[in-house]
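Hi C.,

You asked whether I'd gotten around to modeling the 276-residue construct. I have! Everything is below, sequence then structure, no commentary in between.
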Amino acid sequence: MAIFRSSSDLDMHYLVDDFTDPWREPDTILMLHGNCESGAAWYGWVPHLARRFRVVRPDMRGFGRSTPMPRDFPWTLDIIIDDFIRLMNMLRVERFHLVGAKIGGTVARAFAARRPERVRTLTVIGTPPPFREGAGARIPAWTRDFEENGVEPWARRTMAGRLGDSFPAEGVEWWTKFMGRTAASTQIGFISTIACADITADIPRIACPTLVITTEESGLASVEQTRAWQQRIPNSRLLVLPGNSYHVAASDPERCAQATLEFIAQSGAGAATRSV
């Protein structure tokens, strides 16, 4: 566990998992979690990745153990991307593989498009369309709900679609409590801006090899809708897993992690370096 002072308003919590051979210089994977989560969300991935890669798992500003954000914080994708750039600069990692789930995949797609010199490969799992039609209209209701009830009741109501119908009840409860710890002030500002961000223009600008993972019955979008934007990324592929969860990074971590490892191995991306 470590804390990085990313800026005057942010102490960023992050984890580094590295179980590679001590004589090797491993490549690095930066993992971006979804809304109301933290780097702890990747618990099912770490055993698969960290033997071969140095894995960096930050808590996005406002979430997990990072500094909560006030309700009126001026959220933008570029602010979030800059937070992660500063973290990787501090860790002396110039280029890295980028993995993002849910809204973390929205951030990751914009990241890869806007900072292509830093991203070697991109993997996004269970991530929403580039623009979520109708989401803006729900902001007032969401805001009232978070103001009056906090985050946990919302997480509980929406968890079935998030994790699918085969996830164990004990796991559903863990994820509900985990997400419910998010500060309402963070969530109110985040869901009205980043969760509704339009990254349509970023999609064709993603130049690195890209893997998109979804499920057959994801509640975020159909396979056809996902394929429509995936095919606008020049060097990309789509993997469709069985099931009806949309947070497939959580419901199927082993399969997603293995697919990511195979994708990175097949991508032919050049060797990384730890110096900037």
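If it helps when you're writing up: The radius of gyration is 17 Å.

Thanks,
B.
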